[in-house]
Design a protein that fits this description.
Blueprint: H1 11-15, H2 21-34, H3 44-83, H4 88-93, H5 101-122, H6 135-151, H7 161-172, H8 182-193, H9 195-220, H10 223-228, H11 230-264, H12 274-296, E1 306-310, E2 324-328, H13 338-344, E3 348-350, E4 356-358, E5 361-362, H14 370-422, H15 425-431, H16 436-464
Antiparallel strand pairs: 1-2, 3-4, 4-5
Helix pairs in contact: 3-16, 5-9, 5-14, 6-9, 7-8, 7-14, 8-14, 9-11, 9-14, 11-14, 12-14
Length: about 475
């Protein structure tokens, strides 16, 4: 640090800061007249040169830190500008080699979205660790939620023995059947199988909701597009939702057919149903033997019903099964009703089927004989067994239908659907319209970036000076 003298300036000169050569000459002459020995070490010019030297020295000392600071500002602004995405107008101005920058931009967004959507279904992308998502959620729906819902259905839980017998009686029509009624079996089993339809359609709805969740999660991967081109992002979400709605209707129809077709044809020769039929035939044989033994011990055939044994055909083996008892009162042709009078007494009596009559009219609460209860027991058991067979089939079929007509259809064809509706030249302008917020922010960042780049050039020049 040194002392450098200068001639004081008047207020007039201070108000007019212009410094001319004449002013410089007058100052030098004044120093020579009074301070000749030190005149060359003082004066405005000497002060200016000295301050410039001090300033340059200071810059040299601070240059590394200054250069790093400017470079960081340039890098930060460059990164912020890139995070906003490239403007389509900028690409057109720079003369990109692509024939249609707008088309390329839309296709790239669609590809990114569909790649993540497929990856979510296949488990190939990171979906976080907070909850089960994507294809894993669908697998849980099929093998746990839907499986448990069908397993909770108990066949004939709301059907009593009397209801079953009434169904059997109604299926006879005007003629009593000697064997188990296949009509009653079909009626009961169809009513029970219809209960699976509601849960199956509910499973379709849950799968559709999960597909919409996957769509929303895939949409977050193109969040920058939502900020830069909100119209394009919203249009992609709407197209996928509409496509899923179409596939939902198709899948519901197919699942409904998958369940209802089991009602159209009751296959009593299904391999898994054979054991149930064999069990029923065995049960028939046991009870028939007991009833036949009871008939032999009867005292009078005219007043006791005679039990005759028929051998029904076993549908599983094609052979005659154990004898089945039928009641035939011996004195029916003579018009005798001695058994009914003995059982009912007074104005109440039973007909041949065991239904109680009151004054010649059927009662609403029938009294079931052993034979009637046996028919109900075997019919209900066969319905339950057949219901279990069909439940196993539906459990396996419905998830396959959902995967075929909804999940895989979306996974394979949604990209083509998006391309067909978003890559028309008329759609580019509204879809690629940049939001005002992004446009303003990009303009400000460009101005700052230009200023920082100029500062960086100046700092480099100072460093080499």
């Amino acid at each position: 640090m040194r002392v450098i003298g200068v001639i004081n300036r008047s207020q007039t000169n201070s108000d007019n800061p212009r410094w001319t050569n004449a002013d410089q000459t007058r100052e030098e002459e004044a120093f020579f007249r009074k301070y000749k020995k030190i005149a060359f070490d003082h004066g405005t010019k000497v002060l200016s040169d000295y301050l410039s030297m001090v300033f340059r020295e200071h810059i040299r000392k601070c240059m590394p830190q200054l250069k790093n600071g400017v470079d960081e500002l340039v890098a930060d602004n460059q990164a912020a500008l890139e995070a906003l995405g490239k403007s389509i107008a900028d690409e057109e101005e720079t003369g990109t080699t692509e024939p249609d920058p707008q088309r390329v931009a839309v296709i790239n967004v669609i590809n990114d979205f569909c790649r993540f959507l497929r990856g979510s279904l296949e488990g190939n992308v990171d979906q976080g660790s907070k909850e089960v998502r994507g294809g894993a959620k669908l697998e849980d729906l099929f093998n746990n939620t839907y499986w448990d819902a069908l397993g909770a259905i108990v066949a004939l839980d709301n059907v009593s023995e009397v209801d079953t017998w009434t169904t059997i009686r109604n299926s006879w029509g005007a003629e009593r059947q000697m064997f188990l009624s296949i009509k009653a079996f079909n009626i009961l089993v169809r009513k029970e199988m219809e209960r699976m339809l509601e849960e199956s359609l509910r499973c379709v709805g849950l799968a559709h909701q999960e597909m919409l969740t996957i769509r929303d999660f895939a949409g977050k991967t193109i969040e920058n597009i939502r900020v830069q081109f909100p119209n394009l992002h919203a249009r992609i979400m709407d197209i996928v939702a509409s496509y899923l709605e179409v596939k939902l209707k198709e899948t519901r129809s197919m699942v409904e057919n998958c369940v209802l077709m089991q009602l159209d044809y009751v296959n009593v020769k299904h391999p898994d149903f054979t054991l149930a039929q064999q069990h029923a035939a065995k049960r028939f044989g046991e009870v028939a033997a007991l009833l036949e033994a009871a008939n032999k011990e009867g005292s009078d055939g005219a007043t006791k019903p005679v039990m005759t044994l028929q051998r029904p055909l076993n549908t599983a083996t094609g052979r005659a099964s154990s004898p089945m008892p039928t009641r035939q009162p011996a004195n029916r042709l003579a018009g005798s009703d001695s058994e009914s009078e003995q059982e009912g007494g007074g104005g109440s009596k039973k007909d041949a089927s065991g239904t109680r009559k009151t004054n010649g009219y059927m009662s609403s609460q029938p009294t079931l004989t052993k034979k009637d209860k046996l028919d109900c027991e075997i019919t209900m058991e066969l319905v339950r067994r057949y219901f279990d067979v069909i439940r196993s089939i539906v459990r396996d079929s419905v998830p396959k239908v959902i995967m075929r007509f909804m999940v895989n259809e979306v996974k394979i064809k949604v990209e083509g659907e998006l391309l067909s509706k978003l890559t028309t030249r008329e759609a580019y302008a509204p879809l690629l319209k940049e939001s005002e917020t992004i446009a303003t922010k990009r303009r400000e960042l460009k101005e700052k970036l230009d200023a920082y780049q100029q500062a960086a050039v100046l700092v480099r020049e100072l460093g080499t000076a």
